[in-house]
Design brief:
The chain is built from 14 helices and 3 strands. It is mostly helical. A 3-stranded mixed beta sheet has the order 1-3-2, with helices on both faces.
Length: about 375
């Protein structure tokens, strides 16, 4: 009897173990099937986004006109073709997005280094709408500095290849960051941290001319077009995931988070978008879009060849304006080493070597020029303690 019970119990356990194994196997199979389905949905959304955003990738020079670039030569040709077409960015879009990006940069640190005493900005905005030159800054030390920098900047820009655009120069109140920024549309901003390193007007001119060079050579437009293509892929992928009811697909969280901007990014890929009139271009979209572009720029910096190109343009603009071009080398030498750690960014010494080579080859302005002191009536930010 006992033996029969043991056999019975053993059989019972074996049957149930088999059942448990079968159930576990079934659950695992279901999990694998669910994972495969999720991966398929994510791939389809990504592929559909790549199709919709392809025109932006082509305009940014990231993709060949007739498909994927097979070799480096085709990649270079795609970039040259895109550059020749202005990366597909018309002037109204350039100015609109450039201003939005400049505002984003201007919010860093303590904001713009400027005094506005009017509590109600409405009258100033009304004046600016009809005639920008009718708006005057109130008299103050900060505003005198801004006007001086604008004077030097406009003098340099007048000798550039884009003298007719509405150049805007300004200062960011940020002592902790040594940097200068340029955005599409002719916006140039310098931090107080960089101003404090300067010894004379020629060094100020060097920084301004370098940023002007980025704008005139459309390096800023290239960065913007590239960030726009990347943003399109992110937002439109999310758009298709939501549309397919796959909001919870593993790996798609970041895409879905930005899905609400997919419709607008699809519109960008199809042609020019009037940012003032398109109902999908709202404040939330502009904040998201400009933040992505700023993050993209801060993460990658400008390409190495673009930095050398901007230095070359700065050299030429300084020489034409009568400044000592050696002060460009001097201010580069003052930059912290971390400034050259951005992706693709050349080192400070490499930039100085390139300028030295230009002089050895007899570049105009290699010798001579002036390095005037800052005007006595302009209070320059004090130099940092050594």
């Amino acid at each position: 009897m006992m033996r029969a019970l043991v056999v019975l119990c053993s059989s019972f356990l074996l049957v149930n173990c088999a059942a448990l194994r079968s159930a576990a196997s079934g659950n695992a199979g279901a999990a694998v099937a669910a994972a495969q389905e999720a991966a398929a949905k994510l791939k389809k959304a990504t592929d559909d986004a790549a199709r919709d955003c392809r025109p932006l990738n082509v305009r940014a020079g990231k993709q060949c006109e007739k498909g994927d670039c097979a070799n480096a030569g085709q990649e270079q040709q795609a970039m040259e073709d895109a550059k020749a077409k202005g990366f597909g960015v018309a002037w109204p879009e350039e100015r609109a997005i450039g201003g939005a990006i400049a505002i984003g940069f201007g919010k860093s640190g303590k904001g713009l280094y400027v005094d506005i005493t009017d509590k109600d900005p409405t009258p100033l905005q009304a004046k600016a709408k009809d005639k920008r030159t009718a708006v005057k800054l109130t008299a103050s030390e900060k505003n005198d500095l801004n006007m001086y920098i604008a004077l030097v900047g406009n003098h340099l820009a007048a000798g550039s290849t884009r003298p007719g655009i509405a150049w805007t120069f300004g200062v960011i109140d940020n002592d902790d960051t040594v940097n200068a920024y340029s955005t599409p549309g002719g916006y140039v901003l310098i931090t107080t941290g960089l101003l404090k390193l300067m010894d004379n007007e020629a060094q100020l001119a060097a920084v301004l001319a370098h940023e002007i060079g980025h704008v005139t050579a459309r390096h800023a437009i290239k960065s913007y077009a590239s960030a726009k293509a990347t943003s399109c892929n992110v937002a439109v992928t999310g758009y298709y995931l939501v549309e397919a009811g796959a909001s919870n697909v593993p790996g798609g969280e970041d895409f879905v988070k930005n899905a609400k901007f997919g419709k607008t990014m699809k519109a960008f890929s199809q042609g020019d978008v009037d940012m003032d009139k398109n109902p999908d271009v709202d404040v939330a979209f502009m904040q998201w879009f400009t933040n992505r572009i700023i993050d993209f720029q801060n993460l990658t910096g400008n390409a190495k060849e673009d930095e050398y190109d901007a230095d070359r343009i700065a050299f030429e603009l300084m020489a034409a304006a009568g400044y000592d071009t050696k002060e460009l080398d001097a201010i580069i030498g003052k930059l912290p080493s971390s400034y050259s750690l951005l992706a693709h960014h050349p080192s400070n010494s490499d930039r100085q070597d390139a300028l030295k080579k230009m002089r050895e080859e007899g570049a105009f302005g290699g010798e001579g020029g002036k390095a005037p002191k800052f005007p006595a009536n302009v209070k320059w930010p004090p130099k940092p303690a050594s």
